[in-house]
Amino acid sequence: MTPSFPFDQLPGSSRLWIYALDRPLTDAESATLSDRVDAFIRNWNSHGRPVNAGYEFRHNQFVLIAGVIPGGNISGCGIDASVHALAVCGERSISPDSPRKKISSPLAIPNPSGSPQTARA
Protein backbone atom coordinates (compact mmCIF):
# COMPACT_ATOMS: atom_id res chain seq x y z
CA MET A 1 0.00 0.00 0.00
CA THR A 2 1.29 3.44 -0.98
CA PRO A 3 0.53 6.40 1.27
CA SER A 4 -1.67 9.13 -0.08
CA PHE A 5 0.42 12.26 -0.58
CA PRO A 6 -0.74 15.78 0.27
CA PHE A 7 -1.96 17.15 -3.04
CA ASP A 8 0.03 20.36 -2.81
CA GLN A 9 3.26 18.49 -2.05
CA LEU A 10 3.31 16.36 -5.20
CA PRO A 11 6.01 17.35 -7.70
CA GLY A 12 5.17 19.61 -10.63
CA SER A 13 5.82 16.68 -12.97
CA SER A 14 2.73 14.89 -11.61
CA ARG A 15 -0.08 14.20 -14.04
CA LEU A 16 -3.41 15.77 -13.17
CA TRP A 17 -6.93 14.58 -13.93
CA ILE A 18 -10.05 16.56 -13.10
CA TYR A 19 -13.38 14.78 -12.67
CA ALA A 20 -16.62 16.76 -12.57
CA LEU A 21 -19.62 15.50 -10.62
CA ASP A 22 -23.10 16.06 -11.99
CA ARG A 23 -24.01 18.21 -8.97
CA PRO A 24 -22.50 19.47 -5.72
CA LEU A 25 -22.30 16.72 -3.10
CA THR A 26 -23.72 16.79 0.38
CA ASP A 27 -21.23 16.63 3.25
CA ALA A 28 -22.11 12.96 3.83
CA GLU A 29 -21.63 12.10 0.15
CA SER A 30 -18.32 13.98 0.08
CA ALA A 31 -17.07 12.04 3.11
CA THR A 32 -18.06 8.69 1.59
CA LEU A 33 -16.53 9.54 -1.79
CA SER A 34 -13.36 10.81 -0.10
CA ASP A 35 -12.95 7.52 1.79
CA ARG A 36 -13.32 5.52 -1.41
CA VAL A 37 -11.01 7.71 -3.47
CA ASP A 38 -8.41 7.55 -0.69
CA ALA A 39 -8.61 3.74 -0.66
CA PHE A 40 -8.00 3.68 -4.43
CA ILE A 41 -5.12 6.19 -4.27
CA ARG A 42 -3.36 4.16 -1.57
CA ASN A 43 -3.45 1.04 -3.75
CA TRP A 44 -2.96 2.58 -7.21
CA ASN A 45 -0.36 0.76 -9.30
CA SER A 46 0.72 1.00 -12.90
CA HIS A 47 2.25 -2.22 -14.22
CA GLY A 48 3.14 -3.24 -10.67
CA ARG A 49 4.78 0.08 -9.80
CA PRO A 50 3.13 2.15 -7.07
CA VAL A 51 1.81 5.53 -8.12
CA ASN A 52 2.62 8.39 -5.74
CA ALA A 53 -0.70 10.18 -5.77
CA GLY A 54 -2.96 12.58 -3.96
CA TYR A 55 -6.38 14.02 -4.45
CA GLU A 56 -8.39 17.06 -3.56
CA PHE A 57 -12.05 18.02 -3.70
CA ARG A 58 -13.01 21.48 -4.92
CA HIS A 59 -16.38 23.16 -4.47
CA ASN A 60 -17.98 19.81 -3.51
CA GLN A 61 -18.24 19.09 -7.24
CA PHE A 62 -14.76 18.46 -8.64
CA VAL A 63 -12.26 15.71 -7.81
CA LEU A 64 -8.64 16.44 -8.71
CA ILE A 65 -6.28 13.47 -8.79
CA ALA A 66 -2.56 13.88 -9.37
CA GLY A 67 -0.03 11.09 -9.63
CA VAL A 68 3.56 10.38 -10.55
CA ILE A 69 5.88 7.39 -10.70
CA PRO A 70 9.40 8.58 -9.90
CA GLY A 71 11.61 7.71 -12.85
CA GLY A 72 8.69 6.38 -14.88
CA ASN A 73 5.33 7.08 -16.44
CA ILE A 74 1.83 6.07 -15.48
CA SER A 75 0.79 3.62 -18.19
CA GLY A 76 -2.46 3.66 -20.11
CA CYS A 77 -3.60 0.72 -17.98
CA GLY A 78 -2.84 2.71 -14.83
CA ILE A 79 -4.83 5.66 -16.15
CA ASP A 80 -7.72 3.38 -17.16
CA ALA A 81 -7.70 1.92 -13.63
CA SER A 82 -8.13 5.40 -12.16
CA VAL A 83 -10.97 6.28 -14.55
CA HIS A 84 -12.78 3.04 -13.73
CA ALA A 85 -12.18 3.42 -9.98
CA LEU A 86 -13.57 6.96 -9.95
CA ALA A 87 -16.66 5.90 -11.88
CA VAL A 88 -17.29 3.06 -9.42
CA CYS A 89 -16.58 5.30 -6.42
CA GLY A 90 -19.07 7.83 -7.73
CA GLU A 91 -21.80 5.29 -8.37
CA ARG A 92 -21.42 3.80 -4.89
CA SER A 93 -20.99 7.07 -3.00
CA ILE A 94 -23.57 9.39 -4.50
CA SER A 95 -27.29 9.11 -3.82
CA PRO A 96 -29.03 7.47 -6.78
CA ASP A 97 -31.39 10.38 -7.42
CA SER A 98 -30.43 10.76 -11.05
CA PRO A 99 -30.12 8.27 -13.90
CA ARG A 100 -27.33 10.41 -15.37
CA LYS A 101 -23.67 9.59 -15.24
CA LYS A 102 -22.50 10.87 -11.87
CA ILE A 103 -18.81 11.51 -12.64
CA SER A 104 -17.53 12.77 -15.98
CA SER A 105 -14.66 11.33 -17.92
CA PRO A 106 -11.50 13.05 -16.74
CA LEU A 107 -9.98 16.15 -18.20
CA ALA A 108 -6.17 15.90 -18.33
CA ILE A 109 -4.42 19.24 -17.98
CA PRO A 110 -1.54 19.66 -20.48
CA ASN A 111 1.53 21.80 -19.89
CA PRO A 112 3.32 23.62 -22.73
CA SER A 113 5.47 20.56 -23.49
CA GLY A 114 2.30 18.53 -24.06
CA SER A 115 2.30 16.24 -21.02
CA PRO A 116 -0.21 16.83 -18.24
CA GLN A 117 1.09 18.31 -15.01
CA THR A 118 -0.44 19.53 -11.81
CA ALA A 119 -1.76 23.05 -11.85
CA ARG A 120 -0.54 25.24 -9.02
CA ALA A 121 -2.95 27.79 -7.61
Structural class: alpha+beta
User: How many strand segments?
Assistant: 6
Rg? 14 Å
Order of strands across the widest beta sheet? Answer: 4-5-1-6
Element string (H = helix, E = strand): EHEEEEHE
| Number of helical segments with 4 or more residues | 2
Brief digest:
It contains two helices and six strands, in the order βαββββαβ.
Topology:
Blueprint: E1 15-20, H1 27-43, E2 45-46, E3 49-50, E4 52-58, E5 62-68, H2 76-93, E6 107-108
Antiparallel strand pairs: 1-5, 1-6, 2-3, 4-5
Give a written overview of the molecule.
The chain is an alpha+beta fold. It is 29% helix and 21% strand. The chain contains two helices and six strands. A four-stranded antiparallel sheet has the order 4-5-1-6, covered by helices on one side. A two-stranded antiparallel sheet has the order 2-3. A hairpin with a 3-residue loop joins strand 4 (52-58) and strand 5 (62-68). The chain is globular, with a radius of gyration of 14 Å.
